[in-house]
């Protein structure tokens, strides 16, 4: 069953702010898509919609269909950076796997997570 209208819950900030609990007082502008509760949704969308070639367009569409609020700013180009397509089958890159393992730890404060 799918809801026709997504309920609006005020969680006290934007997705970027809520996905970075250790952020400074400044407004967060980068999303931590590797938080376990968020990345689990990305992985599920990859399994459901990505197909054998991991269609980033289909994954993005599935994420926005399931949770348009959280994934409003998510772009398929972000996924393209996380995928290693050097073999016959796509897989998460080693850097992405390390970031998934770190989860909530975004690295050094003040640096975007991809520089950590």
Assign a percent range to the helix content: 25-40%
So what's the overall shape? globular
Largest sheet: 2 strands, antiparallel
Structural class: mainly alpha
Order of strands across the main sheet = 1-2
Average pLDDT confidence is: 80
Rounded to the nearest angstrom, the radius of gyration is: 15 Å
N-to-C terminal Cα separation, in Å? 40 Å
- Unreliably modeled segments: none
The fraction of residues assigned to DSSP E strands is under 5%
Question: Tally of extended strands?
Answer: 2
Count every helix, treating DSSP H or I runs of 4 or more residues as helices. Answer: 5
In N-to-C order, the SSE pattern is HHHHEEH
Task: Write up this protein.
The protein contains five helices and two strands, in the order ααααββα. The longest helix has 14 residues, at 36-49. Helix 2 packs across helix 3 and helix 3 (56-66) packs across helix 4. The radius of gyration is 15 Å and the shape is globular. Helices cover 39% and strands 3% of the residues. With 116 residues, the protein is mainly α. The chain has helices at residues 15-18, 36-49, 56-66, 76-82, 94-102, and strands at residues 83-84, 91-92. The protein has a two-stranded antiparallel sheet. It has a domain at 31-101. The N and C termini lie far apart (40 Å). The model has no long low-confidence stretch (mean pLDDT 80).
Tag the structure with descriptive keywords.
mainly alpha; two-stranded antiparallel sheet; 5 helices
């Amino acid at each position: 069953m799918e809801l026709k209208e997504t309920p609006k819950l005020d969680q006290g900030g934007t997705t970027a702010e809520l996905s970075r609990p250790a952020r400074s007082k400044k407004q967060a502008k980068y999303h931590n898509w590797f938080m376990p509760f968020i990345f689990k949704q990305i992985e599920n969308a990859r399994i459901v919609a990505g197909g054998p070639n991991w269609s980033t367009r289909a994954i993005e569409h599935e994420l926005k269909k399931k949770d348009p609020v959280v994934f409003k700013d998510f772009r398929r180009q972000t996924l393209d950076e996380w995928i290693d397509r050097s073999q016959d089958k796509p897989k998460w890159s080693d850097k992405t796997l390390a970031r998934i393992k770190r989860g909530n730890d975004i690295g050094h404060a003040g640096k975007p997570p991809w520089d950590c």
